[in-house]
Each structure stands twice: as structure tokens, then as C-alpha cells.
Design brief:
Oligomer: single chain
Distance between the termini: 33 Å
Number of helices: 12
Radius of gyration: 21 Å
């Protein structure tokens, strides 16, 4: 049986037409589950009983099981169990501009980035649309507040689950759905070029983030196997075309790994690589894990790296750190449970 949370409003309208009902009932149902946070069909008081009975026959309102929540001052990390007992993570972060959530898009990940805990746990399957939507709804319910920003940058490679991501965006962005603005939604990719091209042709003005993490092919090949398929020589022109087509700025994520990609020469290489693009660079201090050998760059090294990029005239930030006392790195909380 399908989850009601897995349908876009368009799909729900088609469903009602297929059973001989008016399509406006899709709006009624959407408002109940997304605006009024009602997750039981019987509580939808303006929907006819005959329709309620049909909905109960065709759909479920089942939620995810929250196994564990780790809480820090500005961040919560959630470990969810799915219906097949697989586990995923979400992270809530409080900013001065609102409340954001970083959600997972797959169980595990096949991109096998060497520094990533998620890549150590191989892909089991894609998440369904409802499993991504419910991460947002249930975290919002837990804190009793509305989430204003969504980032798909947790466990998994979103563009390896492309069709479900597109359906997910529809519901998140829908004024009758979660009603989160396009510019408050960010989708991350490690650089799957065909999907970046396809993404650029969609009508949704959501943000794109590219996990770059290296200024040249030699380093990127050593830490990100995807680069052996889609090298920087191919990726950067694709991003340039994406920017020209969408008129949207792209974020480049760059995790600083001690002795790997954090030298002053690397900073200058990065500037040369990205100069002229409408982008900004997000430098990320590495969250170390016992399962991987990579180490965090020294604070002075991070600041030197930042200063070089800033002086070269590129837009750059150092990501504010959240939850260093909890299992902060992507995949760490799930990994702890798996290793028990």
C-alpha cells in the first residue's frame, strides 16, 4: 500500500479523478497533512466519509520510527528506522536565518568517497519520496516549530535517486504542501554530470551544491572515485553551462583534509579552477571518525586557506560547526548502531 506522503499534489489530483471525485479534494487532503499536521484520515472533517474510506483502503499514513535523537545546543541528530528496518539520519540546525534540516536520500551510498562515513556503508536502496518527506515532518513535529530550509546532503547521492528527488521537490515547494521556497531548498551532488544537465532543465529554482573537495584531478581521483568517470575537466564546464542556463549561483563544498587538499598551493589552484563562475566556496572543517584515517586540518591552516581565496576575490565562507559533541559527520550515528 502506498504512503499518502509519497504523492505530489498533481499525482493526488489524478488519483481523485481516477476514482470519480473532484480534483480539489487533493488540496483538502494536502492542507490537512501538511498545513494542519493531521496524519489520520478520519480527522479530515471536510472530506466525505466515502472518500475517507477509499483513502484508507488505498494509502497509509505510517510514520518512520525514531530510534534515537542526539541533542546539542543548536543541533539535533535523528536516527530513523524504516519499515524494512534499514536506518537513515537527519540533522536539524538552528541558524540566525531560520531552522534547516539536512536529510538523507538513500540507505547507504555507492559513491564511496574515501573520507565519508556514509560511503563506508554501501548503498542498500533509494529512499522513497515519503521517506524523505517524513524526515522533515517528524523533525518539525519533534521540535514543535516550522522548518524553513531543506538540504538534501545527508546519507546518499541525491542524483543517484533522481526521479524521487524531483517528486520530493514538488511537495516540499508546493504552497499547499510544506511550502518551503525554492531558494530555501538545496540539492547536493558529487558531480554526476548527466543528472546535473537534466536538473538544469527543470522548472524549479532550487539551489545546487557540488561536493568538490579537491582543486585538481589527481587529488580528487584519490579521494572521490566519481572523478574517474566525471573529471574536473568535464565537471566545471557542465557547471558553467548550468549557471548560464539557470542564472543560479552554485555552491562548491570543500572539506579540508589535513595534508591532502589544504595547502596554500591547493587554495590557489582552487581559485584558478573556479574563477569566473557565479559561485561561492563553502570550506568545511572535517569531522573525524574512528573508522577512517583522515584528519581535520589545523585551525590556522583553515584560516590561511580562507584568506588566500578571499584575497583572490572569490566568495568563500567557513561552515559554522554544529554538534561537535554528537555524531556530527554524515553517517556516524547510523554507523555506531551498525557496528554494535
Amino acid at each position: 500500500m502506498k504512503s499518502i506522503y509519497g504523492l505530489s499534489r498533481d499525482s493526488l489530483e489524478e488519483y481523485f479523478l481516477s476514482i470519480g471525485e473532484k480534483k480539489f479534494k487533493a488540496i483538502q487532503v494536502y492542507e490537512w497533512i501538511y498545513q494542519k499536521n493531521i496524519n489520520c484520515f478520519d480527522d479530515m472533517s471536510n472530506v466525505k466519509k466515502i472518500v475517507i474510506d477509499r483513502l484508507k483502503k488505498d494509502f497509509t499514513c505510517d510514520k518512520l520510527n525514531i530510534l534515537k535523537i542526539e541533542r546539542d545546543k543548536l543541533v539535533n541528530k535523528y536516527l530513523f528506522e524504516l519499515s524494512d528496518k534499514e536506518r537513515i539520519e537527519s540533522v536539524l540546525m538552528r541558524h540566525d536565518y531560520g531552522i534547516s534540516i539536512c536529510i538523507s536520500s538513500q540507505v547507504g551510498c555507492n559513491m564511496t568517497c574515501k573520507f565519508c562515513e556514509s560511503g563506508r556503508l554501501k548503498k542498500v536502496r533509494n529512499l522513497e519520496v515519503n521517506e524523505m518527506i517524513l524526515q522533515i515532518l517528524q523533525v518539525s513535529e519533534d521540535i514543535g516549530e516550522r522548518i524553513s530550509h531543506v538540504v538534501v546532503m545527508g546519507i546518499g547521492e541525491p542524483f543517484d535517486n533522481f526521479d524521487n528527488i524531483v517528486e520530493f521537490i514538488k511537495t516540499v515547494n508546493d504552497p499547499k504542501g510544506l511550502n518551503i521556497g525554492s531558494r530555501h531548498i538545496t540539492i547536493s551532488t558529487c558531480g554526476i554530470i548527466p543528472k546535473i544537465i537534466e536538473f538544469s532543465k527543470l522548472p524549479y529554482q532550487v539551489n545546487l551544491a557540488v561536493s568538490l573537495h579537491a582543486p585538481n584531478d589527481e587529488i580528487r581521483n584519490s579521494i572521490m572515485p566519481i572523478n574517474k568517470v566525471y573529471s574536473l575537466e568535464k565537471l566545471i564546464p557542465t557547471i558553467r553551462d548550468y549557471i548560464n542556463r539557470t542564472n543560479r549561483r552554485v555552491t562548491f563544498e570543500y572539506i579540508l583534509l589535513s595534508g591532502i587538499n589544504d595547502s596554500k598551493e591547493n587554495a590557489l589552484e582552487l581559485c584558478t579552477l573556479l574563477r569566473g563562475l557565479n559561485c561561492y566556496i563553502n570550506l568545511i572543517p572535517y569531522n573525524e571518525t574512528n573508522n577512517l584515517q583522515f584528519k581535520r586540518s589545523k585551525k590556522s591552516t583553515i584560516l590561511d586557506f580562507y584568506d588566500i581565496i578571499k584575497k583572490e576575490g572569490l566568495n568563500v565562507t567557513i561552515r559554522r560547526e554544529f554538534g561537535s559533541k554528537i555524531s556530527a559527520a554524515c553517517g556516524q550515528l547510523r554507523s555506531k548502531k551498525e557496528d554494535l
